[in-house]
């Protein structure tokens, strides 16, 4: 079963839910897909067994063959190629690696070159398998690294995907193919607003979902009204507690110190398994 | 004219809370919400939309079923796995590159422009605002951020304002890069947690990479004083100015629930006081005219 943890708004507690749930169940793979700001490893102190670079294909121009016809520049939808009268400029950070320029060049003057955009790390913390990516600072495109992280999903494992915040392409790349999506939110106007947006994404993608209300007790109750109206189940409430916030600030998964939460996270996972029939 | 972007790396550290209060204190800055996939600034500043424009940021492959013979060449050449076995385009996976249109032997595929969001120009009590909303699940948020910034710049020139105040998004990827390139300074709002520190370090490297002057604000500094000290040490060693330390206080959430900026909701509160001090330091450093 593949469960993704998303939120819309940032800082609502996605990683906290993902890590605590992963630590409470067995046979688990945790994939941190927030490759711009990966944090799950900070809570797990994993042993890293393997690190490898993630590269994407970008165009390399063989100037000796190029006659500057401009077809590659016209074709590229991402403005990654600029064809001047005697030189072609390539902008690898804008390239989406579609390979189109190589196909359209009549002189075969473009070949694919490799451009490193980040790293992939494979490790473990006890029996928990951790996989995460790290986007190189200054590189704009997270999606190819997320794609690489997800290649390590093993069948038969309980897979937990920690999503980046937001509702655009990196989130879509993370949650697509999930059996269920857990939406972590907080009972505030910002939390509700961004929950509504991510719910529209999930509706379009036809992924079933439920809500974890974090910092329950702060803010207002409109989130509960919305969930009721939408028929979204409230899977778990995590109250706003000084102890939880402190443990979080120190990088300690709170279910390790407040052991009653281990059962709650197990129940959360089992509930999802029951709902998805997996 | 100066441009200041409020950022964080990690989400939920208080970017929008700070930006909204700065908007009040700055008086007549041009405001730009560059978090286009989960924008929240409007909930505190209540803009009235004057102008709406469609944003056509990306394209989508459309297959003409009557022409298609189902050879599967498009599927084979697609780098994004966006064409399913039954030769249907997955609109979420398609990045609109157009490779399928050139490999199709029957010319059965075309690229169509799609509306992937809306850009707005609005009026608020505190000044004009440029903002946008990406359609849920769309790509190319970086391009939409660029459009929001262009609109903000146009407004600033028209109104002769000396500041564009930009609310950024979490992360360090394309929308964030689009919101910091060419700005005069960035205020990074962080929190004294392990995640906050980790993400602060990465966003500061990003700002260095793009040669943008950083300021740091430690929000909720009293939830972990040890980590706050670590952040301060780190900033001192790297010559970065910590312009404010805001205590944790329920008032921030209360103000949000009322749809108000904290400096207006509770001007005497310790949080408001800290934000005002921070604004003064930032304003002076940017050499903005105060009154």
Task: Quickly describe the structure.
Chain A is α/β, with parallel strands linked by helices.
By CATH, the topology of the largest domain in chain A is Rossmann fold
Residues in helices of chain A, as a percent range: 25-40%
Distance between the termini of chain B: 17 Å
Helix content, binned percent of chain B? 25-40%
Question: What number of domains of chain A?
Answer: 2
Spatially, the strands of the biggest sheet of chain B line up as: 3-6-7-2-8-1-9-10-11
Instruction: Please summarize the sheet with the most strands of chain A.
Output: 9 strands, mixed
Most residues in contact: chain pair: A-B, 59 and 64 residues
- Unreliable segments of chain B (pLDDT under 50, ≥5 consecutive)? none
The CATH C-level name of the largest domain in chain A is Alpha Beta
Return Rg of chain A in Å. 22 Å
Please give the largest β-sheet of chain B.
9 strands, mixed
Report the CATH superfamily of the largest domain in chain B: P-loop containing nucleotide triphosphate hydrolases
Share of residues in strands of chain B: 15-25%
Number of helices of chain B: 11
Q: What is the overall silhouette of chain B?
A: elongated
- Oligomeric state of the chains? heterodimer
The helix/strand class of chain A is alpha/beta
Number of domains of chain B: 2
